[in-house]
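Postdoc handover notes: sequence design on the structure in folder B. Input tokens:
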């Protein structure tokens, strides 16, 4: 017998006649798959036949608000996307959210994940899992989470009420990316006030497509290995490992220097770096131009970073990052708005992103890298 989830809509006394098997019922208008996932994260594991997630939370920063992180009792992390079929552009928004979600967690400390469940110490997360499994070793659980965060190889699960052409197109696109992604849905029954939901997987797990020999994959840049990379078929010459010029260190503190070592990978956006500033190809030709991205390290100059931190100034307008990526300014700002920010000093068209430690620096670079990836999908 397949596992299922049952909810009583009304109280019915006495025994009732049931004719099996039950035929599928039409889904009621007020049914919410998101609420089902929140109340019963085990739904995901039962559909896939894998370890059951025991806690689930919304990942902040997703434009759709429908991307979740789930954790099983071993501390393994799964990212779930539940596209909004009613909202205009809901499927497209989901693609961008999924591309960015891994970067928001990869190589982050335990506290980053725990905060999504209510507190940085992880007590809420631990309590949620304990309530569903009984005994649990807090030390082993935390160790499992830290290992999963460090590896960054989070499985993706797309949960939908029904599969149609838009969902198939999204899955076809994700098949090209270096991601592990699976699609789940369910069948729905009603019986005398009872709702019965039977989870199921749609199709097989989509693994990254293998590349035929003698292809040699280009070297990936450190700190950005989570980034979905389109698989290219055909012969390729091995790419030389990219060398990143370090930022100047004069006048910077040792902690700032550690942060700057992470921020050099902003180079992968394709902007042109001069000192601590990045310019668009058009702006670099001008005698005077503002940097699209400025790495601020001097406490005596706006935006006045503290000696142990770096602030990254991002100009989002059409003359800057939005125009360079061929995106709308609001799309760029929405994508970056939930990164750690110094909002008090921001003004129109400028986002100030904190890099107060190497974790925030990694997160910032990952988010910018994902933003570029989204700009190239053509599915916005």
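Designed sequence:
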């Amino acid at each position: 017998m397949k596992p299922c989830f049952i909810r009583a809509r009304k109280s019915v006394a006495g025994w009732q006649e049931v004719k099996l098997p039950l035929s599928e019922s039409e889904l009621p208008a007020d049914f919410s798959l998101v609420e089902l996932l929140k109340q019963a994260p085990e739904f995901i594991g039962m559909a896939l036949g894998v370890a059951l997630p025991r806690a689930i939370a919304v990942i902040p920063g997703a434009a759709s608000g429908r991307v979740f992180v789930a954790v099983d009792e071993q501390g393994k992390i799964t990212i779930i996307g539940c596209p909004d079929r009613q909202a205009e552009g809901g499927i497209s928004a989901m693609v961008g959210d999924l591309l960015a979600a891994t970067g928001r967690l990869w190589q982050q400390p335990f506290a980053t994940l725990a905060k999504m469940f209510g507190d940085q110490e992880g007590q809420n997360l631990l309590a949620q899992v304990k309530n569903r499994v009984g005994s649990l070793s807090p030390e082993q659980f935390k160790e499992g989470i830290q290992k999963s965060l460090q590896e960054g190889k989070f499985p993706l699960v797309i949960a939908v009420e029904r599969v149609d052409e838009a969902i198939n197109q999204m899955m076809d696109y994700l098949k090209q990316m270096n991601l592990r992604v699976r699609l789940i849905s369910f069948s729905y029954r009603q019986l005398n006030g009872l709702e019965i939901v039977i989870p199921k997987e749609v199709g097989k797990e989509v693994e990254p497509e293998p590349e035929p020999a003698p292809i040699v994959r280009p070297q990936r840049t450190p700190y950005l290995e989570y980034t979905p990379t389109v698989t290219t078929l055909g012969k390729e010459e091995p790419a030389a490992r990219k060398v990143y010029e370090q930022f100047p260190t004069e006048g910077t503190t040792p902690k700032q220097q550690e942060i700057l070592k992470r921020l050099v990978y902003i180079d992968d956006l394709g902007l042109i770096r001069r000192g601590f500033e990045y310019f668009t190809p058009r702006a670099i030709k001008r005698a005077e131009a503002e940097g699209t991205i400025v790495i601020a390290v001097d406490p005596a100059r706006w935006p006045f970073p503290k000696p142990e931190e770096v602030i990254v100034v991002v100009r989002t307008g059409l003359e800057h990052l939005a125009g360079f990526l061929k995106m709308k300014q609001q799309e760029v700002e929405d994508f970056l708005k939930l990164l750690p920010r110094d909002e008090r000093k921001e003004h129109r068209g400028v986002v100030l992103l904190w890099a107060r430690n190497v974790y925030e620096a990694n997160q910032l670079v990952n988010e910018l890298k994902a933003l570029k990836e989204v700009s190239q999908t053509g599915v916005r």
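Context for whoever picks this up: The CA atoms of residues 176 and 248 lie 38 Å apart. Don't rerun without checking with the PI first.
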